[in-house]
């Protein structure tokens, strides 16, 4: 199973063939990823179509615990030169804590443990 970061969601939505092998897996994401994806959709498709896309997808939106957020703060502090986004840091930590691979194409994650990198 995978935790899809927003990059992976967008690439899957856009039909990037490198992400087709992940189509059978449920899109495990956080509400932060929903927000980032919605923002992307509004920019590219407009609000009405963006709402249709969000409503028609069956994302598996997980709850993020206080402990996960606290660990994400420590993760961001440890890698402060890289400047991971909050959504990415929280998603990465959630994936690690829940035995999921963190699926991304963000170059900042290349080489980190527990990451499936697809570009």
Summarize the entry for a quick read:
The protein has a three-stranded parallel beta sheet with strand order 1-4-5. Strands 2-3 form a two-stranded parallel ribbon. The two termini are 18 Å apart.
Keywords:
globular; 119 residues; single chain; Rossmann fold; 3-stranded parallel beta sheet; alpha/beta
Give me the secondary-structure topology:
Layout: E1 2-4, H1 6-13, E2 28-30, H2 31-45, H3 47-56, E3 60-62, H4 66-78, H5 86-97, E4 101-104, E5 115-117
Parallel strand pairs: 1-4, 2-3, 4-5
Helix pairs in contact: 2-3, 4-5
Distance between the termini: 18 Å
Average pLDDT number:
95
Q: What's the CATH superfamily, by name? A: 5'-nuclease
Number of strands: 5
Structure commentary:
The strands form 2 sheets. The protein has a 3-stranded parallel β-sheet with strand order 1-4-5. It has 5 helices and 5 strands; from the N terminus they run βαβααβααββ. The chain is an alpha/beta fold. The mean pLDDT is 95. The two termini are 18 Å apart. The protein has one domain: 5'-nuclease (Rossmann fold).
């Amino acid at each position: 199973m995978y935790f899809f970061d927003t990059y992976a969601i967008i690439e899957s939505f856009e039909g990037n063939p490198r992400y087709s092998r992940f189509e059978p897996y449920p899109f495990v994401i956080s509400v932060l990823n929903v927000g980032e994806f919605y923002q992307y959709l509004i920019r590219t498709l407009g609000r009405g179509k963006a709402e249709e896309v969000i409503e028609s997808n069956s994302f598996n939106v997980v709850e993020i615990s206080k402990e996960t957020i606290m660990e994400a703060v420590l993760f961001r502090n440890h890698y402060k030169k890289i400047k991971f986004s909050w959504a990415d840091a929280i998603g990465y930590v959630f994936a690690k804590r829940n035995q999921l691979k963190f699926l991304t194409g963000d170059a900042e994650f290349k080489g980190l443990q527990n990451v499936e990198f697809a570009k």
